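Attaching the record inline, Q. Sequence:
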Amino acid sequence: MKQVIIIIGFVVVMMLVFLTLLSVQGRTDRRDELDRAVAAAVKQTVKDSQIENQTSITSDQEMVAQFIQNVCTGIVSDGDLQIQIMGVDYKEGMLDVLVTEQFSYFNGKKAQISIRKCAVYE
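Structure, as predicted:
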């Protein structure tokens, strides 16, 4: 009987360790995905705004819309995105954004991660 209790206790501890590692890895994966998606979207948007004779970005609002479209297509995880534009200038090719993703762990606890990226066309 004593061995059964020890084995059950060991299994419970192993499950808790596994769930903790799963949560930490999930947060790391989300952070990496958000970082890559935002960096690529900022870079692509700034690059697109400086192409000669392009007609898709002719104002700051269109540059922001292009960025939002680029970042949304680059993220596949389920989370709520909040995008704050810190600075934008389509003529000079400058974009500064803060993107926050809110998500839930498997146990229902909510968390958020934020990434701030800035790009200037050279």
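The chain has two helices and three strands. The CA atoms of residues 81 and 101 lie 5 Å apart.

More tomorrow.
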